[in-house]
Amino acid sequence: MANSVRVDIRKLDHLMNVVGELALVRSAIGRIVDRFKVESMHRQSLQDLDRIGRGFERQLSELRTGILDVRMVPLGQVFNKLARVVRQAARERDKQVRLVVTGANTEVDKLIVEELTDPLMHLIRNAIDHGIESADARTRVAKPAEGTLALNAYHKGSNVVIEVEDDGGGMNAHKLREAAVSRGLLSADAGHELTRQEMLNLVFLPGLTTSSEITDMSGRGVGMDVVKTNILRMGGMISVASEQGIGTKITVTLPITLAIIRALIVTVASRAFALPITVVREAIPYDPREVRSIQGRDVITLRGKTLAICDLARLFGFRRSNRGEGRFVVVGSMGNRELGFVVDQLVGQEDVIIKALGKSLSAVNGFAGATDLGDQEVALVLDAPALFTEYFDGPDALLALETRL
Amino acid sequence: MRTTAQKATLAPGLDSGSGAVAVLAVLAGAEAYGFPLSAVREILVPPPLTEVPRAPEHFLGVISVRGQIITLIDLPKMLNLEVEQTEPYGRVLLVDNGEELIGVAVDRVIQVYRMESDQIEFASSMGADLSEYVVGIGRVPSQSSADTEDMLILIDPVSLLGGMK
């Protein structure tokens, strides 16, 4: 600790911009070399220049990795704060709670750590307020009097997963449904068709959170929609699993860094877009003849399973010139959901630096930022969580749910 | 808070009645606009534009300026004027409010004027239904004939950038 420095994160952003600049300079030099190659005069010198250029590029990517590395901090920083919250909440509620932490060394981007404290604090308070039972109640059902709250963090690909798990009373899915129906968030008919998991997911609905009545009944739902919104804003996902009498596990999945991602570059109506590779499962040729419509939603069948597809050109209001030949479906997956994005061309994979869109454009939904592809060409980075939510949970999605039933 | 910012950006010297302010006059969609020169960081040949789907109409899209992503706006549309930004626009102004750089598409740059306060009619005193982005109207000697005056719509960069909806 004695050998560490505190750095303003904006300084790192600035360095990252400089690296981006250098990369552009490097590609400009590369193009000049290519031009000279055609004229093929000083062959040897050109080869040397080419070689030096490649070395330069390697160093540059190391520099970039280095800067990103500086931004990383262990999650333990947040977990320490949370340990205090656990002790305090347990005392207030007169419950016995043991906190078990694993993966405190897991590193994530500083910005994410800062944004993460509030949502995690919320989840922990929920678990202690409503999840873990009193010592008496626990003893009655032959559970140890002391409840266990587990906080687990680990890396999974280029994501970091954080689980908040308690061995409390679990959530009552049917009561959640009743609450949603009585609040008018769901029609009674639609409610009957829900699977157990879908009922549990209702806990994230805004509006299910406001009433104290629901909190007493179902035990959950205080500000869970806010937690979800915060997590989605960071490009993450949140899911819930719960068994009555056994406990509840909330799983938060977040990108390790917000600054740089590996992306699949695609084109839609001649415009380039970047799709974070973490959500891309595969890309398959698109055949318009295979498209079926179910309640106004386009679907295709992929290996015997129904896959909802979303034509990005239509979503963004672009007019296409051709009639759909040679297009692709990029299959995206988040959590247990899958959605196919119809695109025109697959350009390739690239490491891209995500730059935020200006404050003026922050209200526009569906884009996580933009990235410079070189030559001043800008590709918008698709905000996959937002698009998934819009498709599956948006106002239109609810409508589709109602009409399906 | 915005009113103090307005004064600060356009004319620190104007309130005291002395001193002039440098105003960059530009033409956009057949109207002439004035920006406080102090807020204009750069004048660019338009870089390639990437449109942003679903953005309000007055946003033309985003451009990349030395690795920085900058929002480009259509000034006449922003001010709800009937005239449209003629395409292709000739220049991009990079305007700063201390918080965000924003690109403003214009047809061409006219010139820099030094304006005294008596050349400016402030929107507050005119009582007209002016856009919130407008500080007032400036009168400058006409370029075409010596006897007449041209009018500049003076833009408040702070509200333009910060108050954008």
Task: Give short descriptive properties of this protein.
heterodimer; A: 405 residues; alpha+beta; six-stranded mixed sheet; five-stranded mixed sheet; 18 strands; 42% helix; disordered C terminus; B: 165 residues; mainly beta; OB fold (Dihydrolipoamide Acetyltransferase, E2P); 4 helices; 14% helix; 43% strand; globular; disordered N terminus
Word description of this protein:
The complex is a heterodimer of chains A (405) and B (165). Chain A has 405 residues and is of the alpha+beta class. Chain A contains 13 helices and 18 strands. Chain A has helices at residues 9-39, 43-71, 76-93, 110-131, 135-140, 173-182, 188-193, 196-201, 212-218, 224-233, 312-315, 384-393, 395-404, and strands at 72-74, 97-102, 107-109, 147-156, 159-166, 237-243, 247-255, 260-268, 271-276, 280-285, 292-294, 297-302, 305-311, 328-334, 337-343, 345-353, 367-372, 378-382. In chain A, the strands form four sheets. Chain A has a six-stranded mixed beta sheet. In chain A, a hairpin with a 2-residue loop joins strand 12 and strand 13 (305-311). In chain A, 34% of the residues are buried. Residues 210-221 and 398-405 of chain A have low confidence and may be disordered. Chain B is mainly beta and 165 residues long. Chain B starts with a helix and ends with a helix. Chain B has helices spanning 2-10, 75-78, 123-126, 157-162, and strands spanning 21-28, 31-36, 40-44, 59-65, 68-74, 91-96, 101-106, 108-115, 120-122, 134-141, 149-155. Chain B contains four helices and eleven strands, in the order αβββββαββββαββα. The chains are: A alpha+beta (405), B mainly beta (165). Chain A binds chain B through residues 17, 20-21, 24, 271-272, 315-318, 355-361, 363-367, 369-370, 372, 375-380, and chain B through 47-48, 50-55, 59, 62-64, 66-71, 73, 99-102, 161, 164-165.
